[in-house]
Amino acid sequence: MAHYYSKEQQVVHNRRELTFDLRGISLRLWSDAGVFSKGSVDYGSRVLIEHMEIPVKSQVLDVGCGYGPIGLVAAKLNPSGHVTMVDVNTRALALAQENAGLNGVSNVTIHESDGLNALVGKKYDVILTNPPIRAGKDVVHRIFEQSYHQLNGSGSLWIVIQKKQGAPSAVEKLKDLFGEDSVEEVAKDKGYRIYRAIKS
What we know:
By secondary structure, the chain is of the alpha/beta class. Helix content is 28%, strand content 31%. The chain has helices at 43-51, 69-77, 90-102, 137-150, 167-178, and strands at 16-22, 25-31, 59-63, 82-87, 108-112, 124-129, 151-162, 183-189, 192-198.
């Protein structure tokens, strides 16, 4: 059975247009069956977007971009920088590419990658992820490990995760990678937690 974190989707298309307003940015987004949070932008993604900090001219990576809300807002907040958006789901990637064009976002690169596997050697100032919890702890923790190695010094990893879906073990893993004092809970909202881990 295919999941939103599967490469190919066999479910029948059911395209719908969503509107989205946050951080003073309005987006029109096409969604479809077979992608994460197809009916509306996921609440956890909204909380992450509300709190993420994108420095000027930074190189940003959105891991598991889906149809694009997090990465496209990051690109709008960072017009002099660049955002790379990756996902394993080819249907989601096609939507993200379409949505970038629909919203006039040109400072993005969108391509297929399982976690950061296709990005070996690339370095980033900020990595953002609403990780695929249903894919399992091993997949999520691999994204954290890869992110740590591909962040520039003083770079930050931002994640959103629900307390009931593995936040304690996620924090433990982040502290193992980044150090006890380098992981901060930035916000909590309706069971969602936003964590920032800074690479020293």
